[in-house]
Amino acid sequence: MSRLLVVDDDRTVAEVVRQYLLREGHAVTVAHDGVTGLRLAAADTDGGPPDLVVLDVMLPGLDGIEVCRRLRQVSDVPVVMLTALGAQIDRVLGLEVGADDYISKPFSNRELVLRVASILRRSAAAAPVADGSSARLLSGDLEVDATARSVSVNGRPVVLTVREFDLLLHLLHHPARAFTREDLLSQVWGWDFGDQSTVTVHVRRLRHKIEVEPARPVLLTTVWGVGYRWDAPVGAG
């Protein structure tokens, strides 16, 4: 059973989401404003901190973007943001400040349940390593432990979100292969369709965390007219 936090000022929406997630066997806490949501998301309560946060962008007082930004300073808990249909700027901002995923309102409750389940599976600390690959991967100064889901550069720990880690691991498992954004959206996010800017934003964030010069990447490079490629040799630790 996972502990989930739903933050939405629309009490009807929050209750419907809560009921759907409860039916999936999760323990669900609800907050109706940003300040309370941030406190609950960052707190180590009696049951422990949440395993995932469903966070609406439009909140009174402290909006969802700011909640996510502040939460990322103290926690790497997965965040799924709820954005208004067509609100491209909200989606991009949410991803930029560290959200792992987003769903546009109005949304299918079944879609939300599936997205939550997907992220919870990927964020499991003891997840098996894909393709039978080594749990420890080395590429230049980068070291990745797939079982512990930990990353370091030059021995310095680097904190990645669930999706950032999944993206990095996928690229490391397929060095020198060019992927389109559509490929990555399908193979990393598990989406058959969706906003490809999601991939673009995650690549940009990942570069800022692992590249010496993010504006001139040498590890995660752009293949013009195609997409992205991991350009450094990868070895097993």
Overall spatial form: globular
Instruction: Assign a percent range to the helix content.
Output: 25-40%
Q: At the third CATH level, what is the topology name of the largest domain?
A: Rossmann fold
* Strand fraction: 15-25%
Annotate the secondary structure layout.
Blueprint lengths: L2 E5 L3 H13 L3 E5 L2 H9 L9 E5 L7 H9 L6 E6 L3 H9 L4 E5 L3 H15 L12 E4 L2 E4 L4 E4 L2 E3 L3 H12 L4 E3 H7 L9 H14 L9 E4 L3 E4 L4 E2 L1
Parallel strand pairs: 1-2, 1-3, 3-4, 4-5
Antiparallel strand pairs: 6-7, 6-13, 7-8, 8-9, 10-12, 11-12
Can you describe what's shown?
There is one protein chain. With 237 residues, the protein is α/β, with parallel strands linked by helices. The chain folds into two domains: 3-123, Rossmann fold, CATH 3.40.50.2300; 130-236, Orthogonal Bundle (Arc Repressor Mutant, subunit A). Helices cover 37% and strands 23% of the residues. It is built from eight helices and 13 strands. The chain has helices at residues 11-23, 34-42, 64-72, 88-96, 109-123, 162-173, 181-187, 197-210; strands at residues 3-7, 27-31, 52-56, 79-84, 101-105, 136-139, 142-145, 150-153, 156-158, 178-180, 220-223, 227-230, 235-236. Strands 2-1-3-4-5 form a five-stranded parallel sheet, with helices on both faces. Strands 9-8-7-6-13 form a five-stranded antiparallel sheet, with helices on one face. Helix 1 crosses helix 5, helix 2 (34-42) runs parallel beside helix 3 and helix 6 packs across helix 8. The radius of gyration is 18 Å and the shape is globular. Mean pLDDT is 88; it is low at 125-132.
